[in-house]
Amino acid sequence: MAENMSTSTVADAPVYTHEGEVSREDVRNAKTEGGTLFDIRGLEVFFPVRQGFFKAMVSTERRWVRAVDGITFQIKSGEILALVGESGCGKTTTGRTILGLEAATGGEMYFKGLPLSQFTSGAIREYRKNAQIIFQDPYNSINPKQTIFDIVAEPLVVNGLVTSEREKEETVVKALHEAGLRPARDYLYRYPHELSGGQRQRVCIAGATVLAPDMIVADEPVASLDVSIRNDILKLMVEQKDKLGVTYLFITHDLSLAWVISDRIAVMYLGKIVEIGETEEVVKNPQHPYTKALISVIPVPDPTANREHVILKGETPNPANIPSGCRFHPRCPVRMDKCSEIEPGDTHLGGTHYASCLLLES
Amino acid sequence: MIPARLKSWILIWTPVVWLVLELVKYPKETGWNDGWVAMLKGFFDPSVASYPAWFLLGFAYIALVVGIGMLLPDVVKPKAVKKLDRWMLGVGASALVIGYLLERGWLVRWFGLDLHPSLRPMMLLSALVLGLGLLLLPLQMPTRRAGAVVPGLFVAMGIVYVVWGLSAGGLFGGEDPFSLTAAVGSHGWVYQTIAILLGAAIVWVWGSTNPERAELMVWNTRQVWKLYRANWQGMVGLYILLFFAFLALLAPFLADHARLGSTAQFGHMAFELPTFNSYYHLFGTDEQGLSILAEFIWSARISLFVGLMATAISTILGAGIGIAAGFYGGGIGEVCMRITDAFLVVPWLPLAMVMAAAWGRSYVTIILVIGVTSWPGTARVVRSDALRVRELQFIERGRAIGSSNWHIMNKHILPNVFPLIFANTILVVAIAILSESELSFLGLGDPLNFSWGTMLANAWGNGAAGLPAWWYILPPGLAIVAVVLAFTFIGTAFDEVLDPKLRKREDSGGSPGADKHTAGAIMIPSGPVGPSVLSGDAAGGEGGLI
Amino acid sequence: MSPEAASTAVAKPAAAQRIEHPGLLDVRELRAYFRLSEGDVKAVDGVSFMLEKGESLGLAGESGCGKTTAAMAILKLLPENGRIVSGEVLFDGKNLAKRTEFGMSKIRWKDISIIFQGAMNALNPVQQTGKQIAEPIILHEGKSEAEAMKRARELFDLVGINPKRVVEFPHELSGGMRQRAMIAMALACNPKLIIGDEPTTALDVMVQAQILELIGRLRKELDLSFILISHDLSVMAETCDKGVIMYAGQVVESGSTEQIFNNPQHPYTRRLISAFPNIHEKREMVNSIAGDPPNLLRPPEGCRFYPRCVEKTPDCDGAHGEPDSVEVDPGHFVRCVLVHKG
């Protein structure tokens, strides 16, 4: 495990005993231990920095973009966990790495107790049925040349789960219905460009739920939608969590949306989780200076709201040039001298609330 | 229930297809002079629809693969076997090609390798591997779950083609031994008619078992046509093309083929001016006293045919390599692009001359030359579009749900790249026809047949320019210009037409869901997107569709 | 008392109020349509609002409501098939709606400038950023390139970018920086009014806060008036003095932001406000508004929000005609049948 971990339940971390490769059968028979669907430990995702031709020849050191710099957290079965942060913080990379769309360069991810790095290709295919993704842009994330039927049926077809045409149609209709497109049969033979943005996003959701996955990673699912339909999609996600037991990893830059629907929030900054805990705790009682600043600047529909806006100077640094010590120190309004030298560990603030700040350690 | 429109389309187009295919191989000697009865009889002449046996057996193979493939159940098609089959095809074909090159001694000359004697076993082995791969090809077909009628019809068509091919090769009642290249006239029109009817039946049954998809297809086509019709360039191009197509197809009826023979029969003077005295003098005569009108009409066939065939080769090669190069990127992509570059720099004119010298002057040579030298252009264009499509997010979704590369290329990349391929193909036809004229003009065409380029070559070579025998030069020259222009117009029209976002259904308001991030865009909010009103036939009786 | 008499007793005629105090920008019953083959899209169909000098006004609504079109109509930047059908746009007493293209070119950027939606992607990637800012200065004020570049440096400083960065290309600047550059460009010729079309929509929350703070500071320093077009009511609440809520091409509610948020009168306004989460209040699921906006090719008769309204009464349906704009409080206008009834 990486030396510097972000917030985690380290003390009572379960030990996973699976030896050797994880086969397809293992994945199929796996059960959620103690309600934890995912246990992510010290996850690191680095990308090499593309250097110019001459630089590559001359310089000896390799520079890395540390998109995800050692994070540890769990995703509990049946919860909505929000990964919140600004662009460049690594939240999207984390979601994609969990699904295997990016390669982890360090750390380990355990799915139902099984280490993802040991999955055979058959195991990964089985795993893909259990973990799906919804992308941000409903205009580009579905093939404009396919009918809605084909789009939603594709996961079934590709994974060889279709036994008859009749059954395929029934499953697709059910998924569309569950996603709120009713009457579902009317939508089967339409094309994406005939539907509105909200409807398209529902098609994406139907496409993700048709395999009855354990978890869905929702990457900014409502960012491209009108405000009045955002809430429909959010409500749909909560409904699926309640009725179908789907776990959601909700990736968003909008803390107020996370506030509305998620059970727990993890705030990320420059590749690390700086604060994590129950939603109420994190929003009403934030401990990390970054979280406090974020919450203070989020606009609310109340012109008389009179709070101090803590507006940070500058912008999030380039993940290829991470500041020394606490990576937030250049912009921190309450930094101390030692913040530029020492990297903070995790402070347990009670319950599941953790934050990573030197001020809390003293 | 088959959609009404599709029904009428089948009923109209089947006889049209039959007629066109009949005319293509209509006996050239029969013409007006022989009278109505003889002309009608000509359609049922034993020589009509006579194709070489290998061509027919090839079609038979394709039909059987499709039919049997659709009938085989899923259990015999595990992914591993399918992959193995593809590998066998690839390896077998590559090994054969390399073996051929080796045998021809090319690699000997370049690298000093002399493996000649040991090549035979390798060639045999690769032929076996390839053969096995081709035999297992039905495994690649998806199993049809909606009934066995359509696969059965495909198998039937395959059997018809097999019988036809065998009889064309001389197996039945021929004195010579069976030969794959033979094209023995054997009442081929009977087989052809049966095959066409089977094809129509396939479309019919498909339409009946998939009414919604058939309805979609019909609607899509009508939308494309509607959009196309609104484009004046496209319509002008289409009319010109239709004119020349008629000229080409109806050639036996419009001009007596015998008039292209030697002068002695008709005793006309060389280089006579056009007059209105007789039909065949409308365009005057050439240096041999032959009717230029007759030559002009018969040339249409060759010019169009060569252009289309060359384009077919060019497009299949170019699109295939382009998509593979664009999708795979990395090593495979680089290799593909280097091969493309290699062919790109081949100067086609010297190549044509060399090939003509080696394989004789004929239109097959010209087709091959044009095909081989024009596919790189298509490949580059298709590759860049494949690169663009590859970055779209639904490709990533495809990976996330576990699709294989093959599936993604077929279902996602190809349909999105297709509009470009189509528009590009049409422009390639124009270039191919032009190229054929150039090559023919340089004397590389078939000396026994006429094409517009050949006519110009003859005109030039016999001093028509000096006379000036404008009636000899203008018709073929203008015809080439007109046809090339027609295809260019059509291609430009299709560029505009094939964007699916331009198509609207009658019932929904306008473009759905205005994108709020588009500055100054016309903010047309979507009307309520309610149930689609399908055409009367499809909707009748099926409550679920309304 | 008949309903008509009651309404006139309660309501002050909207128009009379405004003639007494002509502000910097006075938009009256603006109508702008787009010509399509199927007919006219009535994108802006009777929009009125007023802006004083130094004030900031928020033009809010969902996509398709006509807010961007209204802004474009003010500057006569509508596309080819768009036109102003009727209404007045009084700027400093001059009616812009009636001006010629030549006349408008004198106003644009000199008196009114605009920051377009997605502006930070509208910079020319192969030209230095400073040069792009200098361009309008050279064109409008006839200054030399050196003088214009000097002014560009000043502007960069004003918007918070290191003046030395004028030689950088757009891709070398971050999203927030590019937006600041666009603001600098809008300020180039010292306009009186800036229209910002979704200026912070694509930005992170912290950068958005910085940009909004910057705009607030500039307004004070330069006595600028600002029209903020946004779908985000929260942003409007916190930064604007006045607000105009648009729906289906019309203004359904307008007034000071305090009036609108503390006492929303129109059902749409109420629902829309409740669709935005308030992170400082009790935690609850946000609302949605069922249905779709009407098709502006054939807008419904009567109240346009009627099909989606949850507070509707039988009096609201089309037969009763379009509701008029009624002043419920000084400066607070609402277009709703129910408000008519007092």
Task: Describe the fold and architecture.
The complex is a heterotrimer of chains A (362), B (546) and C (342). Chain A is of the alpha/beta class. In chain A, 32% of the residues lie in helices and 20% in strands. Chain A has one domain (24-51, 64-361): Rossmann fold (3-Layer(aba) Sandwich), CATH 3.40.50. Chain A has helices spanning 24-29, 53-58, 91-98, 121-130, 148-158, 165-178, 184-187, 197-209, 227-244, 255-261, 279-284, 289-297, 358-361; strands at 36-48, 64-76, 80-84, 106-111, 114-115, 131-134, 215-219, 247-252, 264-269, 272-278, 347-348, 354-355. Residues 1-9 of chain A have low confidence and may be disordered. Chain B is an all-alpha fold. Chain B folds into two domains: 4-235, no CATH class; 290-499, MetI-like (MetI-like fold, Orthogonal Bundle), CATH 1.10.3720.10. Chain C is built from twelve helices and twelve strands. The A-B interface holds A 99, 101, 125, 128-129, 132-133, 135, 137, 139-147, 150, 154-155, 158-160, 162, 164-165, 183, 185-186, 188-191, 193-200, 204, 207, 211, 224, 226 and B 74, 145-146, 212-213, 215-216, 392-394, 396-404, 407, 411-412, 415-416, 500-501, 503, 505, 508, 511-513, 515-517, 526, 529-532, 544-545.
Task: Please mark out the parts of chain B with pLDDT under 50 across 5 or more consecutive residues, or reply none.
Answer: 503-546
Strand count of chain C: 12
Number of individual domains of chain C = 2
Stretches with pLDDT under 50, minimum 5 residues of chain C: 1-20
Q: In what order do the strands lie side by side in the largest sheet of chain C?
A: 6-7-8-3-9-10-12-11
Radius of gyration of chain B: 27 Å
Radius of gyration of chain C: 21 Å
CATH-scheme architecture of the largest domain in chain C? 3-Layer(aba) Sandwich
- What fold name goes in the CATH topology slot of the largest domain in chain C? Rossmann fold
Strand content of chain C: 15-25%
Our estimate of the beta-strand percent of chain B is under 5%
What's the shape of chain C? globular
Order of helices and strands of chain B: HHHHHHHHHHHHHHHHHHHH
Mean pLDDT across residues of chain B: 80
